[in-house]
Design goal:
Layout lengths: L1 E6 L3 H12 L7 E6 L11 E4 L2 E4 L5 E2 L5 H7 L6 E3 L8 E4 L2 E4 L7 E4 L5 H7 L5 E4 L7 E4 L2 E4 L3 E4 L1 E4 L6 H4 L14 E2 L2 E8 L14 E4 L7 E6 H4 L9 E7 L11 H15 L8 E7 L4 E2 L18 E4 L9 H21 L6
Parallel strand pairs: 1-2, 1-14, 2-10, 7-17, 14-22
Antiparallel strand pairs: 3-4, 5-9, 6-9, 7-8, 11-12, 12-13, 15-21, 16-19, 16-20, 17-18, 18-19
Helix pairs in contact: 1-3, 1-7
Amino acid sequence: MTRLAIVGGGISGLTLAYALEQLENEGLRTDIDLYEATSEVGGVIQTAWYDTWPVELGPDSLVDRQRGAVELCRRIGLEKNLVGIRASAKPPLMRTAEGFKPFPHTETRSYTMAGGVSQLPQVLTQFLHRTTIYLRTAISQVVRNEDGWYLNGDRGPYRGLVLALPASALPDLLRDVDIDVSWAKQVVYHPRAVMAAVYDRDSFVDQALLAHTGFIVSPEAELGLTALTWLSSKWAHYPEGAPIICRTFWGPPARDPDQWLDDEVQTLHENALNRLVGPHDPPIWTKLVRYHTALPQIPQGSAWQSSVRFANVRFYLGVLGPYREGPGVSDCVRVAWEEAYRYAQWANSINVGLS
């Protein structure tokens, strides 16, 4: 039997806990404590609601790939809630300084959830039977002694530790541990602001562009935003008469959204829509969220170092996050499964945790 601490209750940490519990069928026996600094799990996966319509404030797309988010949904009984891209939806466009152009990328095998993507972390927690979740519990210090890992001085000892956190948090958290995490300092995060807005169905004079799933915006267009998504046009669970639901994304390389107040972002959102789509009525509902550790930029040669896990063979250390493979939900889910198998391999190598 091993004790494992997971720090971070986003989709990476939750999937790791679930995967390890599933490996009980292969003889792995692990008691897990999961620590989340905020009041709820899910991380950047956030769903708001306007009336009966879900409005995704974080990721909205689950790509179907091996051991990815779609497979995870099927495992926990959420397959019936998966919906695909609307058959009549036109592909996204690229907005450049010269105007709109076809975007050289087609979304395939992508799904969302009719009841909101936040269903995934919420339901996933119901399948955790050997995991204790501690909400509103920020971890500020990690130490390791002859007994194992200790968190915040008195939580421990743990034989294993996995940090499902942004790379930028690792150097300070591991400051008292003789581990080389210099690679983490090279991972750069671009802040993002996401403005979600709902409009009446007849709000836009010209609705031709609303038939597309959205736009990618080139910095040369000098609009300040990086992308726009028409959620109500993209996904099949929104009926034809549903309100128009869109999201705009703000951040580098165009501009730093942290320089703007919330009201300024909403004004920029409306101005951008006027330029992109044309005259329209004001929104009937808005919601703004900010992500300060969005879209990690990984310089070549500075990616996660697998040797970190085996810095001390007696005590396991792993890291999880979108800097490992990619920023998508399915990327994070797949890597969490890989980490679970690595942990099981380590436990087997030192003959602990296996019944």
